[in-house]
Every structure is written in C-alpha cells, then in structure tokens.
Write a sequence for this structure.
C-alpha cells in the first residue's frame, strides 16, 4: 500500500517488494531475464525496481534500448555508475576515470589500432596459440576425454588475447606472474564490489597491489620499447598506443597506455571467454553441427585444411553465424546502466524518470522476444542463413560519428549484444576474429558432444557477476580427429 500511496504521479510503476532496501535484489540477481520478462508482463516495458536500496528504472524492447543507449550526454551518464567499480581496476585518467570526450578519443585510438594488417597477423598468432594449447594442456592428453569448458576456455582466451592484442611480452608473462596479478585484479569485479563499491572490502588490498604491479609491468614494456631495447615486431596495441596523440597534440602518457591495456584485457577476457564457452557448450548439444562447420572449412578453404588466414576467415558464414547466434542467447552483459542527469520523459510514454533513479537497459530481452525472433529460445545458427543483416546498419538509419566510429543514431535493432551509441563496444571486430579463429582451430582438432549424448545445454547461467557466464563446472566430451576423419565418438 505504501508503495502505491507514495508513488509520484507519472513515475514508472514500482515492482512490488516486501523489504525496503533489499527490494527485488534477489529475484533480479538470480535470473535477470526471468525477472525482466515477468515484470514486463505485469507492468509493461517500463518499470522501476529496488536493487540494494537504489531505484532502477528498466526500459525494455527496442524503444527502451534506444532511449537509454542513445541517450544524450546531458541526460544520461555512464562514468558515474561504472567508475566506482572500474576506476580501481583500470586506473587513473582512462575509460570512466576521465571526461567522456577523452574516452571517445581513447576509443578512437583502439579502434584505429585494429588495422587490417593487425587483424591479419592476429589470425596467425591466435591459431598458433590454440594449437600449442591443445598440445600441452593436460586435459587434452590421449585420444579422447572430457574437459570443463568454462575453466579451460578462460585459460585459452587469455593466452590468445594476450598473444595478439596485448603483445609478446605480456603473453610470455602470463605463464608466470601475470596470471596471479590478473586473478587479484579481477577480484575488483566481484559481485560484492559491485554492490558495495564504497566499502573497504578485504580483497581490495590485493586488487590495488595487483593494479599497481600491472601498471608497472606495462610502463616497463613501453619504456623498454621506447629505448630501442625491444625491436618493433608485430602489431599489438601497445605499439599503436605509443604512437597516438590526443587532439591537443599530447602523446598518451605511460600510465594511460597501461590503463587502456588493462581495460582491454578485462573487458575482452570476461565477455569473450564466456562466449566461446557457450559456443562449445551449445555445439556439444548438436555434434552434427560441429561436422557441418568442418565441412564448411573443407568446402571453402580446401579439403586439406590449409592454415587459416584473415581472408579465409571472412569466407566462413556458418562459423560467424554460430558466434552471432550464441551472442543472441548468451550475451555476456545482461544489464547496462546509466545515471539520470535530469528528469527524463521516457520516449513514447508519460513516465518521468527522476534524477534519483538509475536507468537500466537489457538488449538481451529484445533478443529473446518472439515478436522479433521465431522460436526465440531455440539456439540455431542457421536462423541467420538469410543474412547476417543488422537493422542497426541499415542504409536509411540516421548516423552519428563519435570519432571512433559511425554509429546508428536511433537504433531499432532487437539484436545489440555489443550495445549502441557512444558507449558501444569497440572490441566487436577483435572479439569475432578471436572467437571464430578459436572455433576454426577447435573444430579441426576435435569432435565434441555432451556426456551421454544429451541434446540440451548442460548448465544454467551464472548471473552473479557483472558479466554472465556458464556455471562452472560444465564438462563435455572431446575426441581427437583421426587423420582420415574416421574417428567416431563413443
Ligand atoms: C563496451 C559487449 C568484447 C572493449 C561494451 C558494451 C557491450 C559490450 C554491450 C557496452 C556497455 C555499455 O554501454 O555500458 C561486448 C561483448 C564482447 C565484447 C559481447 C565479446 C563477445 C570486447 C573486447 C574488447 C572490448 C574484446 C577489447 C578489445 C570494450 C570497451 C567498452 C566496451 C573498452 C567500453 C566502451 C564505453 O563505455 O564507451 N562491450 N564486448 N569489448 N567494450 Fe566490449
């Protein structure tokens, strides 16, 4: 009754809850999509709920995605929400610890560093890393066995991303001290840090020590490279950032290069390792699709499966569709948040969202709606056979140039796993390249399937962190391919 009586007219409806501060924290936290769909049915596309004392206004479907993700900078703000969590992890003067205009310049540096030449070299480096990984990893000894997909894929992703984007020095350190530093720094993204970002949590000391040590490591790499002690080889992002200048002519200082590299490592690692894990977990439910993927490689690249190239990768639509379809149902970022800077009327409604609320968008909801996708809960890479077209890129859409890329101004796509607007992901191209290259190499090496041939995906999603991922452990069977492809699973 109190919730009804004290609701201001024109504010969006409040999701009913029994306890004031806890609000809907538990139901939302356990399964955000179930929560969003249940409340969408009760209240419509716009509603407010209480998350640990904060009022979150959710705006769903394509209108809601567009309203929040393409919100103007005077209306909505990301850094005030994300910096308490990301600031201590990424560091000073980068990403959310600086004015948005500076972030836009930093995004431009990264985007422009992903040149064709760089991407071309990454395909070779990533392939070599996967081949080496499956040769030396203990779970892949022998002819067949099982492996815990999320754990093993997290390891593999860090090696492939570090060898390509991060550069050889960082990759070599991952076998030794860097892995521990990464682990400690990652504690900064624990769910508890998100909930209590202001609190002096016990693991924050380990996080801060790891952060300082990592900044030192990257700064040292930059200094050694600048001194000429390390010869320029390859196209990693550190080399590129060392050459970038802000609009006012200032080169990117060492600590900012370090911070940007840490941000790329953290942003890329969780999203990509979760996605490749889901790809394999989904393929394990459909072993015949693994064979179809191998056949695609043979048909397009040649029956003898020559070494993969960047050009070859572009010619494998089913591989790209497998990534795309997996991101539809398993987008790693289930909730995107913005601070409200001035009272906002929600597009197409009479609702006014006050500045005391936080806006929440979930493009994963429109990606699961049957008004946009036939049989949406069914995972099927072939649903994209007619084309990988994204409404967002349609020629008649109005666009805006953020400096780092031209993005649709009013997106009406129900499929936005990489977000939209000024904060849209800059890692999409690299992520696709990394995920597809791993997939190509994996399919060449192994057959996979669920234990007992189960056709359903074997684990639920763990939503407890900022990035959702498959619950650990999730064990599937692998079998090494015979020379003549005659090996049979089981
Ligand atoms: C932002 C998704 C991989 C770097 C974002 C956002 C999404 C996203 C939805 C927007 C967040 C928001 O609006 O608040 C993904 C997915 C990935 C992926 C699904 C992989 C499957 C990567 C990789 C990198 C990266 C590999 C780095 C190489 C970034 C950065 C931002 C971002 C720096 C922040 C941009 C900003 O706030 O302006 N990503 N990402 N991402 N992503 Fe990714």
């Amino acid at each position: 009754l109190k919730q009804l009586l004290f609701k201001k007219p024109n504010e969006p409806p409040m999701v009913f809850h029994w306890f004031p501060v806890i609000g809907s924290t538990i139901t939302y936290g356990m399964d955000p999509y179930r929560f969003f769909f249940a409340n969408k049915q009760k209240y419509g596309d716009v509603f407010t709920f209480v998350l640990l004392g904060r009022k979150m206004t959710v705006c769903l479907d394509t209108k809601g995605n567009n309203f929040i993700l393409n919100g103007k900078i005077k209306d909505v703000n990301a850094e005030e929400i994300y910096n308490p969590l990301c600031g201590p992890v990424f560091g000073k003067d980068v990403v959310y610890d600086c004015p948005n205009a500076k972030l836009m310049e930093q995004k431009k540096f990264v985007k422009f560093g992903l040149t064709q030449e760089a991407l071309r070299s990454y395909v070779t480096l990533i392939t070599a890393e996967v081949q080496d990984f499956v040769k030396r990893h203990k779970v892949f000894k022998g002819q067949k066995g099982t492996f815990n997909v999320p754990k093993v894929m997290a390891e593999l992703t860090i090696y492939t991303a570090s060898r390509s984007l991060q550069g050889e020095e960082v990759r070599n350190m991952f076998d030794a001290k860097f892995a521990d530093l990464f682990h400690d720094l990652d504690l900064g993204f624990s769910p508890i840090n998100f909930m209590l970002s202001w609190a002096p949590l016990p693991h924050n000391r380990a996080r801060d020590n790891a952060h300082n040590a990592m900044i030192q490591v990257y700064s040292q790499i930059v200094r050694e490279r600048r001194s000429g002690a390390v010869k320029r080889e390859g196209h990693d992002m550190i080399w590129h950032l060392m050459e970038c200048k802000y609009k006012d002519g200032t080169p990117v200082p060492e600590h900012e290069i370090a911070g940007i590299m840490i941000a790329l490592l953290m942003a890329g690692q969780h999203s990509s390792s979760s996605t490749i894990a889901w790809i394999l977990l989904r393929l394990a439910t459909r072993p015949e699709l693994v064979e179809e993927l191998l056949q695609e490689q043979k048909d397009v690249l040649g029956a003898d499966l020559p070494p993969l190239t960047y050009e070859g990768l572009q010619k494998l639509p089913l591989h790209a569709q497998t990534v795309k379809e997996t991101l539809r149902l398993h987008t790693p970022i289930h909730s995107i948040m913005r601070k409200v800077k001035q009272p906002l009327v929600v597009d197409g409604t009479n609702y006014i969202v006050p500045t005391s609320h936080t806006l929440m968008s979930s493009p994963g909801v429109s990606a699961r709606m049957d008004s946009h996708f036939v049989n949406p809960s069914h995972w099927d890479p072939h649903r994209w056979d007619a084309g990988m077209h994204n409404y967002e890129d349609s020629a008649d859409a109005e666009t805006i140039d953020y400096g780092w890329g031209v993005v649709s101004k009013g997106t009406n796509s129900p499929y936005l796993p990489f977000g939209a607007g000024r904060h849209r992901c800059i890692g999409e191209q690299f992520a696709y390249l990394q995920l597809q290259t791993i997939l190509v190499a994996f399919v060449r090496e192994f057959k996979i399937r669920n234990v007992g041939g189960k056709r359903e995906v074997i684990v639920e999603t763990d939503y407890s962190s900022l990035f959702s991922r498959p619950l650990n452990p999730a064990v599937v069977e692998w079998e090494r391919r015979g020379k003549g492809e005659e090996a049979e699973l089981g």
